[in-house]
Structures are given as structure tokens and as C-alpha cells.
Amino acid sequence: MAGTGVKSRQSNMELLRVVAMLMIITLHYLDKGNVLPEFAEMSTANHYIAWLLESFCYVAVNIYVLISGYFLTTSKFTFKKLVVLWGQILFYSWAIGGIFLLTGMAEEGATSLYELIFVALPVTAGHYWFATIYVLLFAVSPFLNAAIEKMNKQQHRVCIVVLVTIFSLWNTILPMTIPLADGEGMDIAWFVCLYVIAAYLRKYPEDRKRKGYLYVLGYVLCSALVFGAGLALLWVNSVTGKLGGYATNWYAYNSLPVLLGSVCLFVAFTKMEIKGGGVSKVINTLAGATFGVYLIHEHRNLRYLWQQWLGVEQNATQPWMILHLIGSVLLVFVVCAIVELVRKWLFSLITERKWFCKIFERFAKIESKMNGDA
User: Fold this and answer.
1) 276 exposure class (CB count in 10 Å sphere: 0-12, 13-18, 19+)
2) Distance of alpha carbon 245 from the chain centroid
3) Is 273 helix (H, G, I), strand (E, B) or coil?
4) What is the pTM of this model?
5) Start-to-end C-alpha separation, the chain
6) What CA–CA distance (Å, rounded) separates 347 from 339?
7) Phi then psi for 139, rounded to 5 degrees?
8) For residues 75 and 141, what is the distance between their CA atoms, to the nearest angstrom?
9) 9, 128, 182, 212: most buried by Cβ count inside 10 Å?
């Protein structure tokens, strides 16, 4: 979700970044707004629609990592980027947490040592799980790039097969066994796997020459398969009394159909051409605010609250549920994006000053060694 730091931004990929963030907000609307019942307890049309939407939006996190990997593989690591990224996370964790404490809106127990640590040290404490793992991925990216650069095409393919087998295929096919490693895709190992896949897509564009609509179709089929497999397992469970507990097993970032759907949608957008400087400027501006949108609406004090403010649960049973979802998602995105754009402008008053840049000049030699330039 964080910016990649590239100077020439590809508006098609920036549009994908915006679409993925809208998917993320949709997931949080459905899950944290109590719209999703237990999968086996679906009984109304809205229940089925909600779980179907969930399956189509589950690719969002993978897409963000793929976008990051796609650009980070050709960019240089700098401590300035890391500090600015860390500062952005700290700002929202402290600012929103402070507002809630000062206004008395914080829930009981918000001043406990446990909660204060999460707010004060958001990256190391895991306040935002994605942000924590992304910072780790960014920190190790120069070493991953060095390894990827040394690989030939065959080695790169084999590396992907091994990683996908360990971190995706195993748990997708044999969920009843103890997987070698499975945080359902919310761990650094899975992010590294996605990074290596993104690097391959960037390095070997000749392997993605099929028509764009075929990749869109692949995304649709994979997403529908996640939902359909769950229904099939429920039917098997109704007949045999077994396997019902695995109905939502493929609703995981590292499940194979979600991975394939993510890659298909990602490749489809790489083939898109966006014409018009005005349109591109709007898209790029909104895309640059997406990480801030995530940090705001997923703050510990807000992640279950904005759904209450918007009356999500009350509208979940109504015929207009979809309209309410669309309006709520767009409202959350726009409001948070405006706040983030203001924050970026304020931060630029510091980060773009010569004295700030000079602070990091002393780390140039270390950065060169990490990037393999020395």
C-alpha cells in the first residue's frame, strides 16, 4: 500500500492500487460490520451476496504486495524512504490515538500498558499487521533484489514453484494437516513469495502476452471458485457430516485460487492503457493516498467504529444493502484520502527540505552496499 518511490508513475498500476484499496475497505465493511454470518449459516440473499463479494475482494492484499514488488525490484533502498514510511505510520497511530484519549472517546482499558504500547510502537508492536510486514519487506528488498538478479529464468521459475508449494499449495490441498508455514498470508514469508512472483512478471514480460480479457476472466473464475468450493464443502458436509469446517479454508490470502486470481487481475491491469493527462493526474493523486486511507480506517480506535457510525449492521438485512455498501466504501475512501493528502503536504514541508535530505547523506555508503552498487 505504501508508495514505491518511483518517479514515473504508471497510471494503470496506480488505478489498480485504488481499486485494491476499495476492496480492502469492502472486506472491513463486511467482516467488521457484522455483515457476514458464519458460512454454514447463510440463509438470505444478502448473506450469499456478502460472501460472494468477500471472495472477489480477497485478492486485494496480494495485489498491493505484487505492485510493491513490481516496482521495488527496480528501485533502490534508502533510509530516507524507510524513515518517511515509518513516520507516516507513527503519525496516524499517535494522532488518532491521542485524539481519542483527549476527547474521552477511547474505550475502557485504552490507557493500559498493553494498549499504549500498540499505539506508541505501531510497527514493532503490530498495530497494523500489513504495515509491520511491509516495513520488513522493504528492509530486506535490496537483498531479495540481489538474489533475483543472479537467477536465470529457469531458476526463477523453480524458486516460485518451491515457494508456492510450501506457502500456498500445501494448505490449499491438505488443510487437515499441519502446514510447513501458514499465517494465512499475513506473514513475511508470504510477502516474500509474492515479491518473487512480481519480480518475475516484471523481468519476463514475454510470459504475459495473452489478451487482457483472458486474465480478467481468470480472476473472475478463481474468485467464484473460492465461494463455490465453500458451497460444495457444505453440501458434502450435509451428506457425510464431514469437511464442513473447511468451507472457508480458501478464504485466505495464501490459498492457491486467491493467489492465481490476484496474479490474473494484476497482469490484466499491466495491459491497460490510460490516456489523458488529467485523468492520470487524478488517479495518481488518489493512489498516492491509499496507504494513508488504510492507516486511518484501520486504526485500533476506528477499525470497528466507523461501521457503527455508518449503520452497517442495521442496513445489512435491507434490500438496499449493496447501495449502502458502495456509498459507505466510497465515503470512507474519500474522507480518508483527503486527510492523507493534507498530511502529505504538511510532511513535505519537512521531508523535501535540504537539511532533512542531508541527514541521510551519511548513510550513502551503507545504502550502496545494500543495493549492490559498491
Assistant:
1) exposed
2) 26
3) coil
4) 0.93
5) 30
6) 12
7) -65, -35
8) 9
9) 128
The pLDDT score that the predictor gives to residue 184 is 82
Write out the three cell numbers for 7: 518517479
Which letter, b or e, does each residue of 111-136 get, where b requires 16 or more Cβ atoms within 10 Å of its Cβ? eeeebeebbeebbebebbebbbbbbe
Residues near 265 by Cβ (< 8 Å), separated by ≥ 6?
A: 16, 59, 63, 215, 216, 219
pLDDT over 50 (residue 4)? no
Alpha-carbon span 80 to 356, nearest angstrom: 9
Give kind and range of the element (H or E) at residue 96: helix 79-103
All cell numbers assigned to 122: 505501531
Q: How far apart are CA 219 and CA 213, in angstroms?
A: 10
* Mean pLDDT of all residues belonging to the chain: 90
pLDDT, residue 2, reads: 55
**Secondary-structure percent of the chain, ordered helix, strand, coil, rounded to 5:** 75, 0, 25
Handedness of CA 39, 41, 47, 48 (dihedral sign): positive
Length of the chain: 374
Print the SS3 string covering 122-143: HHHHCCCHHHHHHHHHHHHHHH
DSSP code for 10: -
pLDDT at position 180:
60
How many whole angstroms separate alpha carbon 298 and alpha carbon 256? 26
